[in-house]
Specification:
Layout lengths: L3 H36 L20 H16 L4 E8 L2 E8 L5 E6 L10 H4 L8 E5 L18 H15 L4 E7 L1 H10 L8 E7 L5 H11 L7 H13 L8 H4 L7 E6 L7 H10 L5 E6 L7 H4 L1 H17 L1
Parallel strand pairs: 3-4, 3-5, 5-6, 6-7, 7-8
Antiparallel strand pairs: 1-2, 2-4
Amino acid sequence: MPSYGWIIIGAVVLLLGGGIAVMLIMTLPIADMVFRTQFTRPDGPAAGWTRGVCSFPDNEENMEMHRQGMAWAEENKSAMSEVSIENEGIKLCGQYFDFGYDRAALFLAGRAEPCTYSYYFAMPYKKYGYNVLVIDNRSCGLSGDEHSYAGMKEYSDVRKWIAYLNEELGNKKVLLHGICVGSATALRSVTHPDCPECVEGLIADGLYETFYETLRTHFIERGKPVFPVCHEVVFKIKKLTGVNVMVEGPKKDIKKYTGPLLMLHGRQDVFSLPEKAVKLFESSPSANKKLVWFDEGMHSHLKIVAPEKYDETVGEFLRRLRSE
């Protein structure tokens, strides 16, 4: 017959387990709402998912990035053509700016951003001798699908875009420039065994260790409890992609990337933490890598607060690639 001590311990375990189960059941609707608003294409035009719409119109820096990018696209509209490919039965759309070069830069924006978001970051590339491809992520702009997958399906799309730039549009070399989730997506793309060999380098703005990590920091920054909603959202992503974003992502992928790497990171970034960026950089086996710090600027806003430094840093990296 068991002692009273074990009976008490068993009762406590049952009570705690029951409490956790009740908590999970009660928070699932919150996780559903988060997933629906942040990872599912809205019905009709919506900020951040539709071409030509600023994702954060109440933020002056975002609005200025949007205005400058749209003005650049207007100035270069004669060089632009609408392009599309298909991957996994999904039609994917983008815009190609042909400036007459034999190299191209492919821009990968963050979650829920269409191709027009990338105009701002593409602005100096004509001067550096690159054609430009900006793309609508899945579920954004004119591209198909209903969800954003934190890069865990989109990286397959990127490989197809790289091949399209090389084989169909005649670009001998392709550079990837990613922002936030786009950085992680780019890294996962170029470290896949089937990635085309024409990739000449990667620029990663605001790279994080795992998507869970950046999701967690978003919850913290907004004063929301991380457990269990954040974990329930991660579970939903895994159901759609088969990938556990708590463990998979740049933290593992960067150890496989040996090509040229430029990491751009802000010391004030509260979403892609600076100390994590240092660990990522140190984990890279690349013999041609550089980490450049920006003392000011929130996440994804490094260029708007230090445009000359940002563009000059990118330009120096590109010039070094062309001289090799």
